[in-house]
Amino acid sequence: MRLVRAEGLTHAFPGTGPLFTGLDLVLRAGEVVGLVGPSGSGKSTLLSVLAGWVTPLGGRVERIGIDHTGWVLQNPHGVARRSTLDHVVLPLLARGRRRVDAEDEAMALLARFGLAAAAARPFRALSGGEAQRLMLARAVATAADLLLVDEPTAQLDLRTADTVNDVLAGIAQEDAVVVVATHDPRTRDACTRVVDLADHQSAPVGP
User: Fold this and answer.
1) Is the predicted pLDDT of residue 203 greater than 60, yes or no?
2) Interior angle at CA 125, CA 156 and CA 137, nearest 5
3) How far is the C-alpha of 6 from the C-alpha of 48, rounded, in Å?
4) Strand order in the sheet with 3-11
5) What is the mean pLDDT of the chain?
6) Could you tell me if residue 144 is left (phi over 0), alpha (psi between -120 and 50 degrees) or otherwise beta?
7) What string of H, E and C letters represents the secondary structure of the chain?
8) Considering only 30-34, 97-101, 160-164, 191-195, which range has the smallest mean pLDDT?
């Protein structure tokens, strides 16, 4: 069994009110859970809490069967001179693949994200959308048990965004917990389940 269970999560930054409060979640492998809400509602912060990288002010997070967490940032970061292919090959080599097998598997992953033609290009030569898709392909190559994705389609055209949404659904079906923070209504609709953080904010205090 692979799942993440959160109970009574509350978090705020110093000098601010709670981003979210009293949040209960059960995230299971096989589903893609979308986190939605207005800017500043705590979507990216909640991803960090679920990963165990930020300790919430209140509540607890239990991770069951989660040995490896993958994170895809909204603003992709790579090694400027390293090729697109190498970015995906390296995590496969770290998992024990032979070089020739890793390159074949990496090329297949790049093809899934429409990046096969860019395999030899250095990271610095990629467009913003290509770099974002590359980080998703690299995350898939790590075989994460918990995959956290921040605004995966923000820089993509509609057709490419649909492809990315389909791939994320496939990752979940491969026994991973997938959580996506998004403003994109098409990505929201593609999720198995949606959590709206606007429903977990404290009520404003009256005069």
Assistant:
1) no
2) 50
3) 13
4) 20-28, 3-11, 58-64
5) 88
6) beta
7) CCEEEEEEEEECCCCCCCCEEEEEEEEECCCEEEEECCCCCCHHHHHHHHHCCCCCCEEEEEEECCCCEEEECCCCCCCCCCEHHHHHHHHHHHCCCCHHHHHHHHHHHHHHCCCHHHCCCEHHHCCHHHHHHHHHHHHHHCCCCEEEEECCCCCCCHHHHHHHHHHHHHHHHCCCEEEEECCCHHHHHHCCEEEEHHHHCCCCCCC
8) 160-164
Q: Is 87 helix (H, G, I), strand (E, B) or coil?
A: helix
pLDDT at 206 exceeding the cut of 70: no
* Cβ contacts of 180 within 8 Å, gap of 6 or more: 32, 33, 34, 35, 149, 152, 168, 187, 191
Residue with tokens 């093809």: 111
Q: Which residues pair with 147 in a beta bridge?
A: 70, 178
The sign of the torsion formed by the CA atoms of 26, 29, 35, 40 equals positive
Q: Which two tokens stand for residue 28?
A: 């299971």
Of 154 and 137, more confident: 137
d(CA 174, CA 159): 23
- Residue 66 pLDDT > 60, yes or no? yes
- Do the Cβ atoms of 124 and 81 come closer than 8 Å? yes
* Stated pTM of the model: 0.84
